[in-house]
Design a protein that fits this description.
Elements (H helix, E strand, L loop, with lengths): L2 H8 L11 E5 L2 E4 L4 E4 L2 H4 L8 H11 L12 H14 L3 E5 L2 H20 L5 E5 L8 H6 L16 E4 L4 H7 L4 E6 L2 E2 L5 E2 L2 H14 L2 E5 L23 E4 L10 E5 L20 H13 L2 H19 L4 E7 L2 E6 L3 H10 L2 E2 L1 E3 L2 E4 L7 H16 L1
Parallel strand pairs: 3-15, 5-6, 5-7, 7-10, 10-11
Antiparallel strand pairs: 1-2, 2-3, 4-12, 8-9, 11-12, 13-14, 14-17, 16-17
The chain binds pyridoxal-5'-phosphate.
Pyridoxal-5'-phosphate binds next to helix 5.
């Protein structure tokens, strides 16, 4: 059996896979098992921040791999401590809990918010409010948190204590944040929901309401984080400060790691045995993440903003493009063509792009060289021309 046959025989059919088998990859280029070359504008869904097999990242990971690969969380390890210090120093948050994925980072945020309210107010203040169109993960609680009906199916019963309010509607939010609510969970740019940027005014009103009512502001930066939108974290561009920030995807640069950053209010909420993870903050993943965070500097972020603006300017002019949404190198392209068809056609023409609802979504590596980006955009334009 070849890989395609073996995969479809032995792997659960949970994904609608595209007909490409990766053979090797380097930077923003991928080579299929048939030798075909692809330009990668998806980065494994915002994961490969510095592209594939980046030499600096690979060296950092390899060094830790030869030092020790895993310890249980009953012991101390430098990569985890160094990464936590770096994340706190760069964001002003107080403490970090490490896990292995975005959903787990959000699970931790949900648990922490509920415990914070329980410790302070007792039972009855456990509701988490989220926005319609949001996406927060695939575990039971994060599915319940996801504000899209399509995700609330099959797996009943879902955990209780989630309520939804429309994005960018301050009045509705005001009503939703009643005395039963412990936290509001938001993405600054809804990724899976269609690359929808929240209104700055709405976000500021939300933060003010939360502060006034002691409702924790939880910002899900699993996709928007780690330089993706042109700042280290997207919230910085909205003039607010989260009580809890979650991130994953790009953080590990290609290895699984999730982080829940706790602000001053919740710095002491998680106590021994109240939460845990066997692999969370694994030293190899943490070493990779540390090298990622340390390379997200002003020059890289300026490049992200410049490239993002360039893509926008180029695509907005195209007659088949209705609009381009997003921030930095997280972009959604509304086209007259079917997004899935564009994605499939791109594959034929040697380009990897993603979709988000009815948009074509671009999440290139933050260090994608200009000529490769240009070549990728030419292919995309040629498809839109067809
Ligand atoms: C991808 C994503 C998640 C889930 O992350 P996993 O690592 O797949 O569990 C959660 N929130 C947002 C905003 C995401 O984009």
């Amino acid at each position: 059996m070849n890989t395609f046959e073996k995969d479809s025989t032995y792997i659960a059919h949970a994904y609608g896979r595209l007909p490409v088998e990766f053979a090797r990859a380097s930077g923003s280029e991928v080579f299929g098992s048939d030798g075909k070359r692809y330009i990668d504008l998806g980065s494994g869904i915002a994961v490969n921040i510095f592209g594939h097999c980046d030499p600096v990242w690979t060296a950092a990971v390899e060094k830790q791999l030869h030092t020790f690969a895993h310890t249980s969380n009953y012991y101390y390890s430098a990569p985890q401590a160094d990464l936590a210090e770096r994340l706190c120093t760069r964001t002003g948050m107080a403490r970090v809990f490490f896990s292995n994925s975005g959903a787990e980072a959000n699970e931790c945020a949900i648990k922490t918010a509920r415990k914070y309210a329980f410790d302070k107010y007792g039972k009855g203040r456990s509701t988490i409010v989220t926005l319609t169109g949001s996406f927060h993960g695939r575990t039971m609680a994060t599915l319940a948190a996801t504000g899209q009906d399509a995700f609330h199916n099959y797996f009943f019963p879902f955990p209780e204590g989630f309520a939804y309010t429309p994005a960018n509607d301050a009045e509705a939010l005001k009503a939703a944040l009643d005395g039963s609510v412990c936290a509001l969970l938001l993405e600054m740019v809804q990724g899976e929901g269609g690359v929808n940027v929240l209104d700055r005014d709405f976000v500021q009103t939300a933060a003010a309401l939360c502060a006034e009512r002691d409702v924790l502001l939880l910002v899900d930066e699993v996709q928007t984080g780690n330089g993706r939108t042109g700042t280290l974290y997207a919230y910085e561009q909205f003039g607010v400060k989260p009580d809890i920030l979650t991130t994953a995807k790009g953080l590990g640069g290609g290895l699984p790691i999730g982080a829940t950053l706790l602000g001053g209010k919740t710095a002491g909420t998680l106590t021994p045995s109240s939460h845990g993870s066997t692999f969370g903050g694994n030293p190899v993943c943490a070493a990779g993440a540390l090298s990622v965070i340390d390379r997200i500097d002003d020059a890289l972020l300026a490049g992200v903003r410049r490239k993002g603006a360039y893509i926008r300017e180029k695509l907005e002019k195209h007659p088949a493009v209705g609009s381009v949404s997003g921030m930095g190198l997280m972009l959604g392209i509304q086209t007259k063509k079917d997004a899935k068809a564009v994605c499939a056609r791109a594959l034929e023409k040697g380009l990897l792009v993603l979709t988000a609802k009815d948009k074509v979504r671009l999440l290139p590596a933050l260090n994608i060289p200009d000529p490769l980006l240009e070549e990728g955009l030419e292919i995309l334009q040629s498809i839109l021309d067809e």
